[in-house]
């Protein structure tokens, strides 16, 4: 079934090629063939997949990447959330990027399902993940002439931290559905979103959090039914996309709990990200930046709009019907905005 789905996407792309951007003097078919071609690529044998070695203080491990398409000036590296989730959350990009001629790279960070999963808590630090992204960039041959970094949720934290250290390698930055302050994210969850819930449900959730009873199945059930379907993905549970459910099934809970805590209802317990706050550093980001916020997100959309004004060269994309995974529940707004940003930066219209 998976192979059939891949063939179907491929055929749909071929049918839509007449609408893809083309270089002057080249036919539509030629532009399409070049985007699709693996000829003379070192990943032809694997269909675009590369297992990239990552050097750490604890040894060398491998991370999984898969490149889709060819575009010498637009290459988007996707940083998934979690931490410990997978690239599968972004498989809907297949429905939008190919017909625009945008090259993009799926990537499972170290510890995630398709990459190596070492059992060592010392590896799960923001600083080490930043160095991992830099090693991935070098291995894929990305540079300031073509490298766009798109990070969502935890991936947004990682994208910001990467930009603070390595923005000279970036052509464009997309911060999707992530605030620049975890304490302010927590405050938004506890003082704005929580009180919107049924008071008895909210009281029960808070009681379990105060008791640190996060392993209680009732805690997860209440959050999924009353919070996730309102603020993570605004669809009935039986309509959640298969790729999202697959990503949840493949999540590495060790990484997730160590850094994020037990839920998306703020960062709980002694998770290492609980004090992360870079709002005073946002002005350091010079590279063209798109910040994406959504009305029903777990993150405060007004904070994301502020971030877009705080960076030196920013734009805000607001998804009025979206939540945390607004690439699904406000899909047209999301992809129209991201594609416009990428093309504007590429054509120097930003």
Automatic annotation (TrEMBL):
<protein>
    <submittedName>
        <fullName>Proline iminopeptidase-family hydrolase</fullName>
    </submittedName>
</protein>
<keyword id="KW-0378">Hydrolase</keyword>
<feature type="active site" description="Proton donor">
    <location>
        <position position="324"/>
    </location>
</feature>
<dbReference type="GO" id="GO:0008233">
    <property type="term" value="F:peptidase activity"/>
</dbReference>
<dbReference type="InterPro" id="IPR002410">
    <property type="entry name" value="Peptidase_S33"/>
</dbReference>
<dbReference type="InterPro" id="IPR029058">
    <property type="entry name" value="AB_hydrolase_fold"/>
</dbReference>
<feature type="active site" description="Nucleophile">
    <location>
        <position position="153"/>
    </location>
</feature>
<dbReference type="InterPro" id="IPR005945">
    <property type="entry name" value="Pro_imino_pep"/>
</dbReference>
<dbReference type="Pfam" id="PF00561">
    <property type="entry name" value="Abhydrolase_1"/>
</dbReference>
<dbReference type="GO" id="GO:0006508">
    <property type="term" value="P:proteolysis"/>
</dbReference>
<dbReference type="GO" id="GO:0016020">
    <property type="term" value="C:membrane"/>
</dbReference>
<dbReference type="InterPro" id="IPR050266">
    <property type="entry name" value="AB_hydrolase_sf"/>
</dbReference>
<dbReference type="InterPro" id="IPR000073">
    <property type="entry name" value="AB_hydrolase_1"/>
</dbReference>
<feature type="domain" description="AB hydrolase-1">
    <location>
        <begin position="76"/>
        <end position="330"/>
    </location>
</feature>
<comment type="similarity">
    <text>Belongs to the peptidase S33 family.</text>
</comment>
<feature type="active site">
    <location>
        <position position="297"/>
    </location>
</feature>
């Amino acid at each position: 079934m998976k192979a059939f789905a891949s063939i179907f996407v491929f055929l749909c792309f071929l049918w839509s090629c007449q609408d893809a951007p083309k270089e002057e003097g080249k036919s539509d078919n030629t532009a399409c063939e070049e985007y699709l071609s693996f000829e003379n690529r070192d990943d032809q044998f694997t269909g675009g997949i590369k297992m990239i070695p990552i050097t750490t203080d604890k040894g060398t491990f491998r991370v999984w990447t898969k490149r889709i398409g060819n575009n010498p000036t637009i290459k988007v590296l996707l940083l998934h959330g979690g931490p410990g989730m997978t690239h599968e959350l972004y498989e809907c990009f297949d429905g939008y990027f190919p017909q625009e001629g945008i090259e993009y790279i799926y990537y499972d960070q170290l510890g995630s399902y398709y990459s190596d999963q070492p059992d060592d808590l010392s590896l799960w630090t923001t600083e080490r993940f930043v160095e991992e992204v830099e090693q991935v960039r070098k291995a894929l041959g990305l540079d300031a002439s073509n490298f766009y970094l798109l990070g969502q949720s935890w991936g947004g934290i990682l994208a910001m931290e990467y930009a603070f250290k390595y923005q000279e390698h970036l052509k464009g930055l997309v911060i999707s559905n992530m605030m620049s302050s975890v304490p302010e994210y927590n405050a938004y969850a506890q003082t704005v979103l929580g009180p919107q819930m049924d008071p008895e449900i909210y009281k029960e959730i808070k009681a379990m959090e105060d008791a640190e009873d996060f392993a209680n199945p009732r805690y997860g059930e209440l959050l999924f039914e009353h919070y996730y379907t309102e603020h993570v993905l605004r669809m009935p549970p039986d309509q959640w996309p298969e790729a999202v459910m697959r990503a949840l099934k493949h999540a590495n809970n060790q990484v997730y709990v160590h850094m994020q805590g037990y839920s998306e209802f703020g960062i709980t317990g002694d998770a290492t990200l609980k004090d992360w706050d870079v709002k005073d550093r946002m002005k350091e980001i010079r590279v063209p930046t798109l910040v994406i916020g959504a009305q029903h997100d777990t993150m405060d959309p007004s904070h994301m709009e502020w971030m877009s004004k705080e960076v030196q060269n920013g734009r805000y994309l607001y998804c009025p019907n979206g939540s945390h995974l607004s690439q699904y529940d406000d899909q047209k707004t999301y992809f129209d905005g991201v594609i416009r940003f990428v093309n504007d930066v590429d054509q120097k219209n930003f």
